[in-house]
Structure formats: structure tokens, C-alpha cells
Write a structure and sequence with these properties.
Length: 401
């Protein structure tokens, strides 16, 4: 090779090296001559919990929220470890959902004396990662926790007058907060309202009797809800039930006749005898609460000695309870001479055994029983008395009215 050709090759080699250096990725070298040449590292996913890390004595009515501060939140797991009623550890999870703003919000509140761990997972330019936070809730005594019970049993079929009935083992001072946590869904949809009978019982009824075949779903999301006076809901509960055929019983104690309607048609007319003077049967709209094929009835339960002249202690057949104070529709063959003629019972509505058996086979829990013809009104709360109010009166019982 001549000098000239060697010189040309050298120049080409320098030019190629320069070209390769110009095309090399910037991040292939961190620093040249002491100066950085790479891009900034992408920020990792970060999120903030609305409860400080390692916080203690956190109120149980707190709704946990997780808000992303860098990246996109994809999931949140909130798990708790506390003490069960048997003394051992118990675990629980708190459900929630990510809203349109990207923030996760719990849909249930917290249990007392529980250590919660929050794990929030998300993505960013740096990939997927998680952040973890922990806190502990305040301890509560049983006297500070109110247990709710839904009377309606899931899977049951009830009559058209059956109210949704929720009872509490301790008085509720903050009725508004509790009522806001209660929900009833009916299919087909029917307008209804909650009404408080006392600080330990609240009921829901539609404006008119339920439509036969209605599907009813009850949600009492009361766990952790403030009840006022330093008390909180101890549990959440739910129930699903169905409304059956329309079966309405009307008792006219002026004529001493009971008429049974099924889907609006009369299926039975029965002579009866109601309460005598001093034990007058209450007039009003009651709801069938219980059916007993046979039960003992003793006068001592209403303050009359069993062995007194006016006392009794009997095994009664086909008893249908309509009040908590003890009024029933039932067989009363010992009063046969008075059926259709005179009211001579101690407050119940009695009839012949065959008639009572037939009625017992027709009536279902939740059916309305409308009693008329006496001067003694049905007292509120003496049984399921929601239908004894007008619609306006019932709505006024709501804490949200």
C-alpha cells in the first residue's frame, strides 16, 4: 500500500469512528468528562392513605381512602387482624372501589382493636410497584357497640303487609346516621320509607301493601357507623325475601264475623267472638307475626291467677299471633255458644276448631289483619303496626324527614 492509500484509509477510519460515536445511545455512558449524559430515572408509583402510618386509636367510623400521588392506582388490599369473640386472632378485609378520579375509597368501615395493613399497587414509568401502610383502631367495650338484627329471614316468603324490621340490642341516639346506612331495594320498584318505632327498632314499609311477587333486598351496612353517645354499629347485616300472594283478613267485632280474602276474592266467612268488656280486642291493622299449631295460654301471663274465677290454663290450637301483647286468632271451642253473637274472650279472636284450622292453612306470616268494631285502638309498636299509620304519619317517623 502506498503512503497515499494508507493516509486515505486512516482518514476513513477516523470518520467511521466519529459516526459511530454520534449514533451511540446517550445512556450508554453515564458521564463524559465529569458531565452527565443520561435521562432522569422515571418516578416510581406513590400513593397516600388518609390515615397516618402507624396511627393508633383510629375511629372505627373512618372510611379508608388511598390517593395516588405518582402513577396510576390499580388495586388496594386492606386486611385487618384483631381478636375474635373466642379469644384467638380474627382476620377481615375491607372492600372498596377505585373512582373516576383514581382514588380508592372503602365501602365499609372498620372493626375496633384491629391492626390494619393497607397495600396499594400501581403503575408508573418505572413499572409496577406497591406501597404499604399500617394503623390500629380504637378499642371498644360491648356497651359501646350496637348489634343489629334483621327480623326478615333470607329465602322466606311473607305476606303483602310484612315490614322490613331491624332491631338493636342497645338504644340508638344518632338515628339519622343509622338510617342513612340502611337500604331497601324492591323489584318491581315501590315507593317506601323507614319509620322509627323506638330507639331500638326501625321498620320500612311501602306506601301501599307490597305487590305480590315482589323481591326485597335489605342492606344494613352499620358496622362502624356512629350511633351517638360514644356508641357504634357492631355489625352489618342483609336479607333477601319474597312477597307472596295477597291474603287479607278482616275481623268485624260489631258483627262478630271474620272474612278472609285471597287475591281480592272472599274465600271464607267465619263467625267469631272477640274480647269482652275489660279485655276488649284492639281495633287497627295488625300483621301476622307467628303461627303455632298448638300453644299453652295461661291467664297468669296477663295478670289473672290461673286458679281464679276468671282464670284459665289451656292448650290452644291453630294460634295466629297479631300483637306482641298476646292477641291471637285461634280455635276456642269452649266459647262456641258466643260465635257470631257476643264478644266473650279475654282479648283474642276465637272461632270453631274447623274454621281455625282452615284459616291457619291460608294465612302466612306478614299478612294484614284488619280489626274493626271496638273502641280500643291498636297501640303503636304492639306488634308490627306500621300499617296503622297513614302514609304521611309513617313518613314523619323517619329520621330523614
Amino acid at each position: 500500500m502506498t503512503w497515499k492509500s494508507r493516509g486515505a484509509a486512516a482518514l476513513m477510519a477516523v470518520a467511521l469512528a466519529a459516526a459511530l460515536g454520534a449514533c451511540a445511545p446517550a445512556e450508554s455512558a453515564d458521564r463524559v468528562g465529569g458531565q452527565a449524559t443520561g435521562h432522569a430515572t422515571p418516578a416510581a408509583f406513590q400513593a397516600a392513605v388518609n390515615i397516618a402510618g402507624d396511627a393508633t386509636d383510629v375511629a372505627v367510623d373512618t372510611l379508608v381512602k388511598v390517593t395516588p400521588s405518582s402513577g396510576t392506582l390499580t388495586s388496594v388490599a386492606v386486611t385487618g387482624v384483631g381478636s375474635s369473640t373466642k379469644g384467638g386472632p380474627s382476620t377481615s378485609t375491607v372492600p372498596g372501589a377505585i373512582g373516576q378520579d383514581g382514588t380508592w375509597t372503602a365501602t365499609e368501615r372498620l372493626d375496633p382493636a384491629t391492626v390494619y395493613t393497607v397495600v396499594a399497587t400501581g403503575t408508573s414509568g418505572a413499572g409496577e410497584s406497591s406501597v404499604t401502610s399500617r394503623f390500629t383502631t380504637v378499642a371498644l367495650t360491648l356497651k359501646q357497640q350496637i348489634h343489629a338484627t334483621i327480623t326478615n329471614q333470607s329465602g322466606s316468603t311473607y305476606g303483602v303487609a310484612m315490614p322490613v324490621d331491624v332491631t338493636f340490642d342497645l338504644p340508638v341516639a344518632d338515628r339519622t346516621s343509622f338510617e342513612q346506612a340502611l337500604q331497601v331495594t324492591t323489584v318491581p320498584a315501590q315507593n317506601g320509607s323507614w319509620g322509627w318505632l323506638s330507639d331500638r327498632e326501625v321498620q320500612w314499609r311501602p306506601e301501599n301493601y307490597f305487590e305480590p311477587g315482589t323481591k326485597v333486598t335489605v342492606q344494613a351496612n352499620l358496622n362502624g357507623v356512629s350511633a351517638g353517645d360514644g356508641k357504634y354499629g357492631q355489625n352489618s347485616a342483609s336479607a333477601d325475601f319474597t312477597i307472596g300472594q295477597s291474603r287479607i283478613t278482616k275481623v268485624d267485632l260489631s258483627s262478630k264475623q271474620l272474612t278472609q280474602y285471597v287475591d281480592g276474592a272472599v274465600v271464607a266467612t267465619v263467625p267469631v267472638s272477640g274480647g269482652k268488656s275489660g279485655s276488649t280486642t284492639r281495633s287497627g291493622t295488625s300483621v301476622v307475626m307467628e303461627k303455632l299449631a298448638q300453644t299453652r295460654m295461661a291467664s297468669e301471663t296477663i295478670g289473672i291467677a290461673n286458679d281464679s274465677a276468671d282464670g284459665y290454663d289451656l292448650q290452644v290450637k291453630y294460634a295466629i299471633r297479631i300483637t306482641t301483647s298476646g292477641e291471637f286468632l285461634h280455635a276456642a271451642p269452649w266459647n262456641a255458644a258466643y260465635f257470631g253473637r257476643s264478644n266473650q274472650s279475654h282479648g283474642c279472636v276465637g272461632m270453631g276448631t274447623a274454621d281455625a284450622q282452615k284459616l291457619f292453612g291460608i294465612i302466612q306470616i306478614g299478612d294484614p289483619v284488619v280489626v274493626t268494631g271496638t273502641s280500643r285502638p291498636l297501640d303503636s309498636g304492639n306488634g308490627w303496626t306500621a300499617w296503622n299509620d297513614s302514609w304521611e304519619q309513617w313518613q314523619a317517623r323517619s329520621a330523614l324527614a
